[in-house]
Amino acid sequence: MKVTTILTWIEEKILEKLLGNASLTLLYQSSVHKNCVREMTQKCSLQGSTMTVFHAEKDVVVGVFILEDFPSLGSEKQCTCAWFSFKKNNSSGISALCLNTKVIVESEELIIFSLDGDGLSLGVNSLGGCTLSLNNTVMNELELNLGRGLISVECEIFRVDGIKKNPGFIRKMMTAEQHRGKLLSALRAYKPYEGLVSEVRILLVGPVGSGKSSFFNSVKSVFQGHLTRQAIVGSDERSITKQYRVYSIKDGKSGETLPFMLCDSMGLEEGEEAGLCVDDIPHILKGCVPDRYQFNPCEPIKPNRFPQDASPPLKDRIHCVAFVLDINSVNTLSDKMVAKLKKIRKDVVDSGIGYVALLTNVEEYDEVLDDNFANMTETVTSLRQVQDVQTMLNIPIANILMVSNYASERRLEPVKDILIFAALRQMLRAADDALEDLPLEDTGNLVPLVHWGVWESFS
Question: pLDDT averaged over consecutive 10-residue blocks of the chain (459 residues)?
């Protein structure tokens, strides 16, 4: 008889994502198989990594992932374990921690307790049904609100396939989802500096195929909670993007439009009459170019081409420029391309606009973040490219950002999301710095609002 898990499809995918897109295979279910530890160990021992899931009262799910083999009956062993909990139908609010743990299997009892000195322990007793006992420390650490004493549970154990046998990687994946949630909350709460504009505009500019449109698609995806492909992308040598596009981003949770926009431009090419004309950049920066304007590489925008050329409002101007570069081709950019990028950077600086560099197509993206996800690090594989960009465009290291855009993936990944969120956060910081530094004549007629203070706790 085929046994089906109680987890919903979404909950199962969230747990798989928590472990780095592993796959789960159900081995044991207490209500179907014999409700005893002996039967449990017979089905789960020597199966590789496992995830034990307890379905408790109040729609709460508690679980422990064991990196090593599930212990056999009458044994005890030290394991690398990840403890987690979430509320059913609200599984985005997952709590997780990774601990060195001892697992003891007796004839009618499974005992799991932490060796890290924090008093965490849980026990499963199969006498008279499967019951779970959690101490107060577990409930506090996992943000649980359950009664004391034995709790009746349905117990399921899954084999976990496709996971790296690396305790450091497991620890990183356990904290990734939580850090992702913090960054997402901060971005949702963002307000532009002093309320000088209602929406910050970020211009994406770079060579053909560098990943500008893909970055917009990736940003939209992480806020929607699923992959989207609004902007057309391609791998041709000529630019797929022909129009100037101003994209709003909606929050998939509230449905509200977020206070920042991504402006996608035509790709730069080496030829003088190919790709985006660098003489068009000042018009874009000043906010003169309307959404869906069709670029003409052979005919730059003429002065006074648009009615608002004289004095476009601050809200229509660009507030941050992101120089988007493929990390794998930074060292092979031609002299002509570098000259174009430097010309654009000069226009950006002369306009008093914030700027960053965004390196895309980072392959080892799980190694780019430090252990607590606070900062991007210059790994051995990326240090040379970062230094080259710093020298080429005179951009501070802190403003050289790295991402791996979503291209052919079928689902979101926490570490990828963190890089995208972190890059967007730094772009907004650069925009805020530029807004703060505006001359009085640009802000004198605006009524300032109280400045927000969300970033500080995640710097």
Answer: 82 80 88 80 88 84 87 84 77 69 83 77 75 78 70 86 77 75 89 92 93 91 83 55 85 88 90 80 88 79 65 89 94 91 94 94 77 67 84 91 85 85 95 88 54 43
Total Cβ atoms within 10 A of residue 370? 11
Q: List strand residue ranges (DSSP E) for 361-404, in order.
A: 400-402
pTM above 0.85, yes or no: no
Query: How buried is 422 (Cβ within 10 angstroms: 0-12 exposed, 13-18 middle, 19+ buried)?
Result: buried
Which one, of 290, 263, 275, 124, lies nearest residue 203 by Cα? 263
d(CA 261, CA 178): 26
Q: How far apart are CA 132 and CA 116, in angstroms?
A: 21
Give residue-wise pLDDT tens across range 225-257: 888 877 666 555 555 557 889 999 998 878 889
According to DSSP, the β-strands at 293-294 and 243-250 are antiparallel
Q: What is the DSSP letter of 456?
A: G
SS (H, E, C) 19-35: CCCCEEEEEEECCCCCC
Q: In the CATH scheme, what architecture does the domain 182-458 have?
A: 3-Layer(aba) Sandwich (3.40)
Q: How many angstroms separate the first and last alpha carbons of the chain?
A: 53
Greatest CA separation for the chain: 85
Q: Which ranges constitute the DSSP H helices of 209-365?
A: 212-224, 281-285, 335-350
Burial of residue 364 (number of CB atoms within 10 Å: 0-12, 13-18, 19+): exposed
Domain ranges of the chain: 9-162, 182-458
User: 3-state class of 43 per DSSP?
Assistant: helix
Angstrom distance (rounded) from CA 391 to CA 374 = 25
**Cross-strand pairs, 62:** 54, 85
Instruction: Please say whether the beta carbons of 65 and 82 come within 8 A.
Output: yes
